[in-house]
Amino acid sequence: MPKRTPEAGDQAYLVAMELADLDAVMDIEQRVYTHPWSRASFSDVLESGYAVQLLKAGDTLLGYFVVMQGVEEAHLLNIALAPEYQRQGWAPLMLEAVEIWALAHSAVWLWLEVRSSNTRAQAVYRARGFEPVGRRTGYYAAGRCQREDAVVMRLAL
Ligand SMILES: CC(C)(COP(=O)(O)OP(=O)(O)OC[C@H]1O[C@@H](n2cnc3c(N)ncnc32)[C@H](O)[C@@H]1OP(=O)(O)O)[C@@H](O)C(=O)NCCC(=O)NCCS
């Protein structure tokens, strides 16, 4: 059985996701989102060569992010922490790792979309210097037959 909690003294580290990590990633994905990505979405991004990095401590998965390289820009497609590891300061560290990855891939801008109702994530992004620059109407599925706007945010690297 995999360990469920980090041992005292375990160092946190980032590591590239592999298909073998899919169950652990989906466990978090389904707990933190009302409209989670499917297993196929994660398999697709892995196959497409996007960066999918896991934040782990010992054998425990704390969170992950998915980032895609563009021309002089990078796009943060997903970032999540298991509920039990939220509000502990991991999010700014993960965002810093995303920024370093983007800079290393010649990005000048880092872009993301976030649900307009997800004010908590927006606050976390703003605290790292992201600014809201637009809105995509009805970008996300919401309740039954409903849609929700995306707030587009960007960070100058
Ligand atoms: C978005 C997400 C990754 C942010 O992670 P987070 O842990 O909530 O973010 P932070 O670490 O910055 O913590 C935020 C809160 O914890 C507090 N906090 C930060 N570091 C802390 C620490 N070391 N000790 C105690 N509290 C801390 C912050 O002050 C902040 O508190 P507030 O909400 O009362 O203002 C996380 O909320 C998440 O996984 N959400 C679900 C998925 C999601 O929405 N992803 C974004 C899609 S666009």
Task: Report what the structure shows.
The chain has 157 residues and is of the alpha+beta class. It is 28% helix and 38% strand. The protein has helices at residues 22-32, 39-47, 90-104, 119-127; strands spanning 12-16, 51-57, 60-69, 73-81, 109-115, 131-141, 147-156. Strand 6 (131-141) and strand 7 (147-156) form a beta hairpin. The longest helix is centred in the middle third of the chain and has 15 residues, at 90-104. The N and C termini lie far apart (41 Å). The structure holds coenzyme A (COA). Coenzyme A is lined by residues 32-33, 79-81, 86-92, 114, 118, 120-121, 124.
Features:
globular; 38% strand; binds coenzyme A; 4 helices; 7 strands; 157 residues; alpha+beta
Short description:
This protein has 157 residues and is an alpha+beta fold.
What is the strand and helix layout of this fold?
Blueprint: E1 12-16, H1 22-32, H2 39-47, E2 51-57, E3 60-69, E4 73-81, H3 90-104, E5 109-115, H4 119-127, E6 131-141, E7 147-156
Parallel strand pairs: 4-5
Antiparallel strand pairs: 1-2, 2-3, 3-4, 5-7, 6-7
Bound molecules: coenzyme A.
Coenzyme A binds next to strand 4, helix 3 and helix 4.
Our estimate of the beta-strand percent is: 35-45%
Helix content: 25-40%
Ends apart, CA distance between termini: 41 Å
Instruction: Please tell me how large the radius of gyration is.
Output: 16 Å
CATH top level label = Alpha Beta
Low-confidence stretches: none
Largest sheet: spatial strand order = 1-2-3-4-5-7-6
Question: In the CATH hierarchy, what is the superfamily?
Answer: Gcn5-related N-acetyltransferase (GNAT)
* Strand tally: 7
CATH topology: the name is Aminopeptidase
The number of helices is 4
Q: Quick one: overall form?
A: globular
Mean pLDDT, to the nearest integer, reads 95
Q: Order of helices and strands, N to C?
A: EHHEEEHEHEE
